[in-house]
């Protein structure tokens, strides 16, 4: 899809710590790909390769977990001065673009358990950062909205978050990023299809 906004690159200040959970040893860019990177052999009745044969640096779930862990560790440092947790931040982030979600939908989009989301919403409501309203056509359903105070707080966090986001793609051009996003959407659809 053309015409979308490009990622603005800004330098992370030197005082900001690099990822605490960085990928150790050789990365995928340092190690040549092995033949048959796509896991099709086992599906065709062949023997599945060992993890050692695949290599951690080529095993996508491992890479995604490392990226996620590093991102969350750095976000915790960024959020600490605001008295926020990553779950609270994700909740405000989702509601800032998708207002009126139910707790079930919000838990899915914020990538957290419903029980954790319930406690998070209680805390955010006490801070007057979100509000819950009964749905007009079904009073049993509660919709969740970000308040002006919540939007203002997220507005203070977002520039730092976006700066970190841009730094993830140092050395990555626009075409590579678009391809990565497209590939991740395909993988996400596959994950949903197999019920993971």
Entry keywords:
single chain, 196 residues, Arc Repressor Mutant, subunit A, two-stranded antiparallel sheet, 7 helices, 49% helix, disordered N terminus
Structure description:
The structure is a single chain. The chain is mostly helical and 196 residues long. It has a single domain (55-193), classed as Winged helix-like DNA-binding domain superfamily/Winged helix DNA-binding domain (Arc Repressor Mutant, subunit A). It contains seven helices and two strands, in the order αααααββαα. It has helices at residues 51-54, 60-79, 86-97, 103-109, 114-126, 148-167, 174-193; strands spanning 130-135, 138-146. It has a two-stranded antiparallel sheet with strand order 1-2. A hairpin with a 2-residue loop joins strand 1 and strand 2. Helix 4 crosses helix 5 (114-126). The model is unreliable at 1-19 (pLDDT under 50).
What is the topological layout?
Blueprint: H1 51-54, H2 60-79, H3 86-97, H4 103-109, H5 114-126, E1 130-135, E2 138-146, H6 148-167, H7 174-193
Helix pairs in contact: 2-6, 3-6, 4-5
């Amino acid at each position: 899809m053309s015409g979308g906004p490009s990622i603005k690159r800004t330098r992370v200040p030197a005082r900001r710590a690099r990822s605490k959970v960085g990928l150790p040893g050789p990365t995928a860019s340092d190690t040549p790909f092995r033949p048959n990177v796509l896991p099709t052999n086992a599906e065709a009745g062949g023997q599945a390769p060992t993890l050692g044969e695949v290599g951690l640096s080529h095993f996508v779930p491992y890479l995604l977990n490392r990226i996620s862990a590093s991102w969350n560790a750095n976000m915790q440092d960024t959020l600490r001065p605001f008295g926020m947790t990553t779950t609270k931040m994700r909740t405000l982030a989702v509601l800032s673009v998708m207002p009126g979600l139910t707790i079930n939908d919000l838990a899915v989009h914020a990538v957290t358990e419903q029980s954790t989301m319930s406690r998070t919403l209680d805390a955010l409501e006490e801070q007057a950062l979100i509000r819950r309203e009964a749905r007009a056509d079904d009073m049993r359903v509660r919709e969740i909205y970000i308040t002006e105070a919540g939007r203002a707080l997220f507005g203070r966090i977002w520039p730092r978050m976006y700066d970190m986001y841009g730094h993830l793609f140092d050395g990555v051009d626009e075409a590579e990023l678009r391809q990565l996003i497209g590939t991740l959407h395909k993988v996400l659809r596959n994950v949903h299809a197999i019920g993971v």
